[in-house]
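User: Run a structure prediction on this.
Assistant: Running it now.
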Amino acid sequence: MIETIALSRKNLNLFSNEELDLIYNQSELQDLIGLPFSSANIKNQIDLKKESFDQTKRALISKTLEENYREVDNKEAVTKNINLLKENSTFTITTGHQICLYGGPLYFFIKILHVIKLCEKLKEQYPSNHFVPVFWMASEDHDSLEIESLSVFNKTLTWDHKQEGAVGEYSTQNISTVQNELLELFRGEKEIECYLKAMKGDNYGDAFRSWLHYIFGDRGLVVLDANQKELKSTMKPHFTKELVEQFSNQCIENTNTLLKSKNRKPQIHSREINLFYMHGGERKRIVKEKDTYLLGNLKLRENELLELVDKAPERFSPNVALRPLYQEVILPNLCYVGGMAELKYWTQLKNIFKRSSIPYPMLQMRSNILWIDKASSKTIYQVGFRPDDLLQSRTALEKQVINKADPNPIDKITIEKHQASIRELYHNAIQQDNGMKSWIGAELNKLDKLNHTLQVKIEKAKKNSFESQVKKISKLKERLFPKQKLQERSVNLLHFCNQAGPKQRIADLYDALNPLSTDFTIIIENETK
């Protein structure tokens, strides 16, 4: 049996004030972002996007997606959504991520389901419009450390691919090694086998899209790999402007000054040119030196470089500073749903959109989830805790364990009141003797220190007396917050699939999410009654 608890993020000590502003106080950040996120503001964002996204752009994105999905098993919901993109009443809600090994941490799945469910909620509120959930594959990223491992049952599995360049172009030839290791963990369960082998394709980008389609296709998720010539052709004027004027760096530097004046720390550091050059299996920074541009080992003058942009735009790859602009150029997008780090770097980019005459989307923080499995849930209730107690620090939890188990607890408040009473008694008795005041004050300070020492030693002794209970809760804390981080940032979805298959776990996550809520969600698995 699954139940959920919703808690305000404001009360959890998991987010800084700067981060809480992006969740609760977007109206105060409008010099850094666009319209504050709310379902009521969707209509205004639709009107804004309509002006810049014409029928030609709609035809291009729908045609490109149709071709991408031609070799993929047909899912009616996806086909319908791709066709709907041709209509001027259809808009997208987008999230994205590196193409991690089988999704990587749990929040990867949370982001996608958040976007899917948000589209459904918006359709209810705006029935004359259509909303398509889009996952943007960061297939051009070359940081393979981000994508090559996953954690299941406290075991880290790594894909030893020995490849470089854009990860979407990697060969999947030896990914079966990881598949076999995972099958060993699940003793060859059929559903798990189908889930793992759905990752198939000539390169990692194709395989990853096929795998996501297998999981989320029935829910209408459209997966976009934007590393395509037809789509990048729309970026020619922006690529040219970046290479000639280095405009994005200017915009970000100006915004960084504004951020610092508001005591906000920039998330990303801009480069003079925020483009890479991809060719021959490599992705290299573009660097300008006087009148020459260096593209790895290639040296070009400005006219030669701009001619290359015109002929081969697919060779130019935006980095984190320009990728969001590319996204908004090719999609009829209203809102980007991301994690906190993503939202922070989006706050550095508004001027890039302004200089490019492209509407800036609304931003929304993705859902946060703590998943408490049956074994953990049983332990929590055995020690007399509530599930939300686990969000306290380990030290606070240990004290709570001792206080619950100890028939004679040390009450710090009572001790402090007792000490205050003693002070008042002695001071009243000697108030006419100034010589005694100094002496008695020093003696009372010694007494305070002695009381503190006694209290610490007694607490330590009690902690040792209740060592088994303390160890149990400490172990549970580590299990639910690996390396003192949110669980969703460490373990993969498969970590929760020893009692139910991936399809059921996706359904459990979907049911638990409320994309219009700002709350933190705890999922609790209980024994079936």
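The first helix runs from residue 17 to 24.
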